[in-house]
Amino acid sequence: MSDDLDRPPLGKPGGPRTKGQRSADTRPTGLRRDYILARLERDGHKDLVEAICKGRVSAYTVAVELGWTKRPEPIGTGSTNAARRRQHQLKAFASGGLTSGQIQELWLGPSHNGSYFGSREELEQAWEQNRNEVMRLFANNGRRPRAWWCFDAPSLNLKYPGYDREQSYLFEAGVLSEAECAELLRSWRRKFEQAQTPGFDLNDGERILIGDRARAAHFEWAGIPRALVEQWSAEHPARRHGKRTEPALPGSGAPLKSEVR
Fold this sequence. Notes:
The chain has 261 residues and is mostly helical. It has three domains: 7-13 and 28-71, no CATH class; 93-160, no CATH class; 177-240. Helix content is 46%, strand content 2%. It has helices at 33-42, 46-53, 59-65, 81-89, 100-108, 120-138, 146-151, 166-173, 178-194, 211-222, 226-235, 237-240; strands at 201-203, 208-210. The chain has a two-stranded antiparallel ribbon with strand order 1-2. β1 (201-203) and β2 form a beta hairpin. The chain is globular, with a radius of gyration of 22 Å.
């Protein structure tokens, strides 16, 4: 991601925590657009970052769809302008007479308010008529629109594995474009190398892991396919020239809850 958004990066997930304190490297949470963009960027959701930055969808809408927050229940007061603005943000996607809400459903699936289509047949017809445009807009970065998973994936014997595993699953299935594969390989390689630093450790929320156990948890979080991890690990200088040695964690306090390499 370029630096033109002028947003300092979020801290990496996990890490030592002290109750009541916040790391100096971690930005405050909330529903601000800059926080949502930074969190999406940190977690590798480049497709959603691009959609927000180009005005295709609001940051808040994406946060709702990913389950980071919920829209407040309508109380029947106030202006309807906000709801209208949300609809206009997606009108650039509209084609074939579909509403912006229907286009969004083909991309992300139904909202918490339910489907914008009257039946599954209506949904499937909308997908057939608008597949090319929806795929052009949203089939990138190793991900596919939710309607693709619903109607096209079964013919390939594929089943939606969840957002966290989607990229590696499609990569291993061989259905991604050459450009997508190259982009993912570059991203995964960077994340692989991050875990090769001496003394690499990771806080999984319950304990601090070090050594190979920390690396394995990091690779799983990054979604790197197991075959690539094995290949790159075998090629890495630290592996070729002998077993790693990990320095002891600083401090002389009580042992960690469950420390394994």
